[in-house]
Amino acid sequence: MLNQPTAALMMEEIEVAPPQEGEIRIKVVATGVCHTDLYHLFEGKDKRGFPTVLGHEGAGVVESVGPGVTDFKPGDKVIPLFLSQCGECKFCKCPKTNLCDRNWSSKYHDIMSDPTTRFTCRDRPILQFMGTSTFSEYTVINQIAVAKIDDDAPLERVCLLGCGISTGYGAAVNTAGVTPGSVCAVFGLGAVGLAAVMGCKNAGASRIFAVDINEQKFEKAKVFGATDFLNPKAYNKPISEVLAEMTNGGVDFSLECVGNTEVMRTALESCVKGWGVSVLVGWTDVKDFSARPIQLISGKTWKGSLFGGFKSKDSVPNLVCDYMTGKIKLDEFITHKMSLEQVNDAINLMKTGQCIRCILNISK
């Protein structure tokens, strides 16, 4: 549990209420530690978002269901979803977006939680981070934000599809629409960026530039399909100019997977004029970004991507199947495995760039 920004997480016994109408109580088995957890902890700093239980990249087993739940039963393997899909709102009915009007982010994106919660600690309400809170042995979630997955799926791996891998992979194949033979650049080689590299590769890109100031990540990027590797600190000119020189004017597609507004601009400027597409993937809401209008007037497109453009309940079960048939990788993202009691160590590993994904074993 987390009481305030920048503080260490504390182990506390919390009460998890039974599921109410349309809700599911899940026994969480495993969860990844995602940079968005760190964002809320160290960057967002909105005190209204505390106390909270972090975690949003998990997988588990249905423990019980509330009244009105017909699509889930105890024992089902599931992945909680920070992005819901009610199937009824104007966004869910529109094929152009994966947003949902009933998602917590529609009203409470600044505190990254809905004030409604099933968690209490010593009679004090505890917020459920991003509507999920997977750093808990049990969590209660509305059925519109839960995906039922294959009974044979390994939960300690497919949990990664609850956020980071789906986000980066989908940003390439869905939002950017990477085309066969194209040239791409991915900025930031965390799990999201590496998944974007994998998406570019699977979409048929002929050349994929992996851009990061940590050169230790280049070997891992090669595993996912990167062909060229650039450290911006190794050049005495903007990396967008370097890319333009190496690609005869710029790349066809660029993906910013850091959550840094300066890198977002650099990624746009790295695209070729006329048709270049740049996608904002990294999560941030604390700074403004800017660009010269001529970048867009000249024919470039600047887009944003949430959860890779995937409609969550429909797509996550398919992504699980894609992993189980070898179409996408998951195992290669996992660099550390720890217990829930080691959560602060896991956070420090990610904060210092020493891991790609750490999996926390929540329930034995």
Secondary structure elements and pairings:
Layout: E1 15-16, E2 23-32, H1 35-44, E3 52-53, E4 57-65, E5 77-80, H2 105-108, E6 113-121, E7 124-129, E8 138-142, E9 146-148, H3 155-158, H4 164-176, E10 183-187, H5 191-202, E11 207-211, H6 218-224, E12 228-230, H7 239-246, E13 253-256, H8 261-269, E14 277-280, H9 293-297, E15 301-304, H10 312-324, E16 334-339, H11 343-351, E17 357-361
Question: How is this structure best described in words?
Answer:
The chain has helices at residues 35-44, 105-108, 155-158, 164-176, 191-202, 218-224, 239-246, 261-269, 293-297, 312-324, 343-351, and strands at residues 15-16, 23-32, 52-53, 57-65, 77-80, 113-121, 124-129, 138-142, 146-148, 183-187, 207-211, 228-230, 253-256, 277-280, 301-304, 334-339, 357-361. The chain has 2 domains: 15-164 and 309-361, Medium-chain alcohol dehydrogenases, catalytic domain (Quinone Oxidoreductase, Chain A, domain 1, Alpha-Beta Complex), CATH 3.90.180.10; 176-304, NAD(P)-binding Rossmann-like Domain (Rossmann fold), CATH 3.40.50. Strand 16, helix 11 (343-351) and strand 17 form a beta-alpha-beta unit. Strands 2, 4, 5, 8, 9, 16 and 17 form a 7-stranded mixed sheet that branches. Strands 12-11-10-13-14-15 form a 6-stranded parallel sheet, with helices on both faces. The chain is globular and about 60 Å long. With 364 residues, the chain is α/β, with parallel strands linked by helices. The longest helix is centred in the middle third of the chain and has 13 residues, at 164-176. The chain is built from 11 helices and 17 strands. It starts with 14 loop residues before the first strand and ends with a strand. The model has no long low-confidence stretch (mean pLDDT 94).
